[in-house]
Amino acid sequence: MSFVAAILPIIGIFFLLFVWKQSSLKAGLAAYAVTVVITLSHSSFALEIQEIVNASIKGLLTSFIVAYVLLFGIFLFHLMNKAGAIDDIAAFIAQSTDDQITQTIILVTGFSPLIESTSGFGTAFFIVTPIFIALGFHRFKAALLGLISLLAVPWGALATGTMIGSDLGDISISNLGIGSAIISIPIFVYYVTIVVYVAGGWRALREKWRAILLYSLTFGISLLFFNTYISVELSGVLASLVTVGIGLTVIKKQRKRVNLTTQETSVKRLSIIKLASPYLLLTIFIFISRLVPPIKHLFHSHIVIDLPAYSFSLALLYSPGFWLCVTCLFTIIIFQIQRDVIWNAWKASLKQWIPFVIATAGFVSMSEVMADSGMTAQIATTTTTVFGSSFIFLSPFVGGLGGFLTGSNTGANAMFMQLQVQAAHQLDIPPDILAFSQNTSASHVTMASPSRVMVGAALCDIKSQENHLLKSISLIAGGALLLIVSITFGWIWFVS
């Protein structure tokens, strides 16, 4: 009965979302409420009121880290959109090649991972999805493609989630990065295949299978190379740049040459530099803040929210949220956006942001209360006892569950990385492999997180299709989990 009580909030989430078709906001709040009721009524998981409050505050603080980034991510989108920059960038991509499938592949394997690697927290979704809409995709397809484009989450914001997983699991960051890259290579091929199918159907798959392999393997192998020989933190950025570079080279060779005067070419180059300048500035700022030691120390040590009682610390200047804020100010200046337009963009951002913050806080606070009450430990103990060595098949689903609930690789690793490593030791399985499984499965399922889907539906103005979008992306993420299960089992069998 204790196991049933412990897993009840998680079962409730699935029923609310997939059976009763409730919004992520309602599901998050309801799941949190059910968890609190269980801790107050079930002796095995009893917590004092103050303990529940403390766990809930920890969840709110963790949610704030993400909310801080996404507020300015949404605001940047609205500013760029109202300035017409999104449509102009889409037009430039369209002019580079008239092949919509090639445009889509480059956005998914190059541009989106570049933004996600430098910003993290799903920021790339806010930049890439509007481009898909501007390129002519239906809003539902654009939202789906934008979510799938978040395939570089293990290396998002310079691999912060992977670094936390390394610390919690006592696994070398280099080993965790390399292992995650190895498992992810087939996943990239799978995702790009899905992207081409969503964008163009079976015909596109038949015509573009070489492009699928070229771009997905270029990104995956580059990622593995940079994880191995450069650094885990920078590998996502560098692999993205390599992929974009190869993509533009291929396009240049394939497209028909157009005779332009020197002046026309110059104007075109200046125009795209201006259009892309907010994203370039954001990338440069984050690079500098992380790669120049004196600046990194400065931003890490000033204006820091430090709450030791809740094991919480946030350097506001070091966070991508701050640099997104600076980028928003830069965007206002360079595009000369009027005050009333700025105000309307801000109101639109808050309208989308507030429900997301509440939903995310509900899911993360629920997770914190479950962990502090012993509900998470009960689930782990029971599943390990029941499944024994077969737990290796369950391991990716545990990691995926964390990513699904929190929408964060960091949050999922905080919930389950220690569980995975402890289970590996108990079952005499190499702990590194289950750590790889945890990191990749959690990361690749964040794209299906209800809170992230909710934001996607709101951003694309398809709120009535939120549940359909959630089902579609969940099926896609589920396919990735099955691949991770196969790879994890094969790896363990090989080393045994």
TrEMBL record:
<keyword id="KW-0812">Transmembrane</keyword>
<dbReference type="GO" id="GO:0015129">
    <property type="term" value="F:lactate transmembrane transporter activity"/>
</dbReference>
<dbReference type="GO" id="GO:0015295">
    <property type="term" value="F:solute:proton symporter activity"/>
</dbReference>
<feature type="transmembrane region" description="Helical">
    <location>
        <begin position="144"/>
        <end position="164"/>
    </location>
</feature>
<feature type="transmembrane region" description="Helical">
    <location>
        <begin position="29"/>
        <end position="47"/>
    </location>
</feature>
<comment type="similarity">
    <text>Belongs to the lactate permease family.</text>
</comment>
<dbReference type="InterPro" id="IPR003804">
    <property type="entry name" value="Lactate_perm"/>
</dbReference>
<comment type="function">
    <text>Uptake of L-lactate across the membrane. Can also transport D-lactate and glycolate.</text>
</comment>
<keyword id="KW-1003">Cell membrane</keyword>
<keyword id="KW-0813">Transport</keyword>
<protein>
    <recommendedName>
        <fullName>L-lactate permease</fullName>
    </recommendedName>
</protein>
<feature type="transmembrane region" description="Helical">
    <location>
        <begin position="349"/>
        <end position="366"/>
    </location>
</feature>
<dbReference type="GO" id="GO:0005886">
    <property type="term" value="C:plasma membrane"/>
</dbReference>
<feature type="transmembrane region" description="Helical">
    <location>
        <begin position="473"/>
        <end position="494"/>
    </location>
</feature>
<feature type="transmembrane region" description="Helical">
    <location>
        <begin position="312"/>
        <end position="337"/>
    </location>
</feature>
<feature type="transmembrane region" description="Helical">
    <location>
        <begin position="386"/>
        <end position="407"/>
    </location>
</feature>
<feature type="transmembrane region" description="Helical">
    <location>
        <begin position="234"/>
        <end position="251"/>
    </location>
</feature>
<feature type="transmembrane region" description="Helical">
    <location>
        <begin position="272"/>
        <end position="292"/>
    </location>
</feature>
<feature type="transmembrane region" description="Helical">
    <location>
        <begin position="119"/>
        <end position="137"/>
    </location>
</feature>
<feature type="transmembrane region" description="Helical">
    <location>
        <begin position="211"/>
        <end position="228"/>
    </location>
</feature>
<feature type="transmembrane region" description="Helical">
    <location>
        <begin position="176"/>
        <end position="199"/>
    </location>
</feature>
<feature type="transmembrane region" description="Helical">
    <location>
        <begin position="5"/>
        <end position="23"/>
    </location>
</feature>
<keyword id="KW-0472">Membrane</keyword>
<keyword id="KW-1133">Transmembrane helix</keyword>
<feature type="transmembrane region" description="Helical">
    <location>
        <begin position="59"/>
        <end position="80"/>
    </location>
</feature>
<dbReference type="Pfam" id="PF02652">
    <property type="entry name" value="Lactate_perm"/>
</dbReference>
